[in-house]
DNA sequence: TGTGTTAGGAACTAATCGGTTCCGAACTAT
DNA sequence: ATAGTTCGGAACCGATTAGTTCCTAACACA
C-alpha cells in the first residue's frame, strides 16, 4: 500500500552478477555496482543489506542462471560421445575473460568468507554431478566410484582452464584430451 | 657513500610474497604489507616505486623460491612412478589455504594487468615444463606431443585443485587418479 | 673530525571507500 | 480527494586508501 519500486529486482541482480563475475568483489566499488544494477544508493540500501549480501545473491543468480543453463546444455546435448558433450564447457566461446564465477569466488574470498566457501562448494558439487550424469549417459566408467573420480578430473580441469584463461592463455583444444582421459580412444 | 639501509631486501621481498600470496593484491593494504615486510612507509617508498611494483617483485620471488623448489623436488624425487612423483604437488601439506600464487594472481589480476598476465603465463609454462620432464624421465607418453598434452592436464588439474582448496574442499587423493590418467595401471 | 648523503619514521594529504540521513515526489488504499 | 507509506536521489559521514613531505639521526667518505 505504498509506492512500488521502479527497478526490476531480477535484472538488477543479473547486473550485479555480471559485474561481480567479471571484476570480483573487492575490485567492484559501489558506484560501479550501482551502475551495473541500474539503481542509486538510496534504492540500493533500501532493497539490500550491503555489498556483501548482494555478492552472495549474485552467486545464487549465477547458480540459477549460468550453472543451470550449463547443466541443461550438457543434459540436452546430442553429442555422440561424452568428450564431445563435455568439450562444450571448455570452448573459448564459453570461456571469455571473466572466467568461472565459482572459481573466481573460491580464489578471492574462499579462505576468508565461510558463506562464500559453502556456497561455491555446493555450486561446484552441482556442476560435478552434471558432469557425472553425462558420463553415466554415455556409459563411461565401470563403477560409480570411477565415474565420480572422472567427474572430479573434468571439474578440476575446468576450473584450472578457467583460471588460466583469465590471463589470456592460448585456446587449447580440450576435445582430444578429454577423449583420451575418458578412454574413448587410443 | 651514505647511510646504508637497515632492512634486508631479500627478507622484505619474501614477506611481501607471503602476504600477497595469502591475501591477494587488493585485500592487502599498505599497513599489512609494511608489517609483513618489516619496514615503515618511509623506507618502503624510498626503496620501491609503489604497491604494484612490489607485487610484481613478489611474483618474481615466488618464481625464484617456491616454483624453483617445486621443480627441484620433482626432479630430485626418487619416486618409482611419475604419478607418485607428481602426487607431491597435490598433497594437502603442499597446498594450504593460500592456494597457488600463480593461480591466485591469474584470477585476481590477469584480465586487468598485462604485466601480471605475462608473468603468470611464463611461470605456468616453467611449472609445466618441469611436469613434462617428470613424464619423460619415467617414460610416460609415446610422443613429445602426447607428453605435452599430459603436462597440460596435470598443470590444469593442479590449478583447479589449488583453487578449490581455497574454499577448504575435501582432501581428495589425487595419487590414484594421476596413476590412471598417466596410464600407469588399469 | 667534519661534510654530504640517505635511511627511517611521524605527520600529513587528497581521494575514495562503504554506508547513512533526510527530504520531496510518487504511488496505493481508503 | 486525501492520508499514509515508501521509493529514488542528493548530500553527507567517518574511516580508510595509497602515496607524499619533511625532519632527524645515522652512516660513509675524505
Automatic annotation (TrEMBL), chains A, B:
Residues 6-66 form the HTH tetR-type domain. GO terms for molecular function: DNA binding. Residues 29-48 bind DNA. SUPFAM superfamilies: Homeodomain-like. Keywords: DNA-binding, Transcription, Transcription regulation. Pfam families: TetR_N (PF00440). It comes from the Bacteria. The keyword ATP-binding does not apply. PROSITE patterns: HTH_TETR_2. This is Transcriptional regulator, TetR family. It comes from Cognatiyoonia sediminum. The lineage of its organism: Bacteria, Pseudomonadati, Pseudomonadota, Alphaproteobacteria, Rhodobacterales.
Amino acid at each position: 500500500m505504498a509506492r512500488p519500486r521502479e527497478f526490476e529486482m531480477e535484472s538488477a541482480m543479473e547486473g550485479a552478477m555480471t559485474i561481480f563475475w567479471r571484476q570480483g568483489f573487492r575490485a567492484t566499488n559501489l558506484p560501479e555496482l550501482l551502475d551495473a544494477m541500474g539503481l542509486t544508493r538510496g534504492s540500493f540500501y533500501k532493497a539490500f543489506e550491503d555489498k556483501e549480501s548482494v555478492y552472495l545473491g549474485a552467486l545464487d543468480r549465477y547458480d540459477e542462471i549460468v550453472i543451470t543453463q550449463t547443466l541443461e546444455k550438457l543434459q540436452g546435448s546430442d553429442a555422440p560421445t561424452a568428450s564431445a558433450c563435455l568439450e562444450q564447457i571448455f570452448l573459448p566461446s564459453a570461456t571469455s575473460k571473466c572466467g568461472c564465477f565459482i572459481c573466481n569466488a573460491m580464489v578471492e574470498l574462499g579462505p576468508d568468507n565461510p558463506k562464500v566457501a559453502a556456497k561455491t562448494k555446493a555450486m561446484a558439487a552441482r556442476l560435478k554431478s552434471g558432469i557425472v550424469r553425462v558420463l553415466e549417459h554415455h556409459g563411461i566408467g565401470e563403477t560409480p566410484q570411477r565415474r565420480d573420480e572422472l567427474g572430479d578430473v573434468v571439474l578440476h580441469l575446468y576450473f584450472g582452464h578457467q583460471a588460466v584463461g583469465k590471463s589470456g592463455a592460448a585456446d587449447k583444444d580440450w576435445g582430444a584430451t578429454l577423449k583420451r582421459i575418458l578412454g574413448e580412444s587410443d
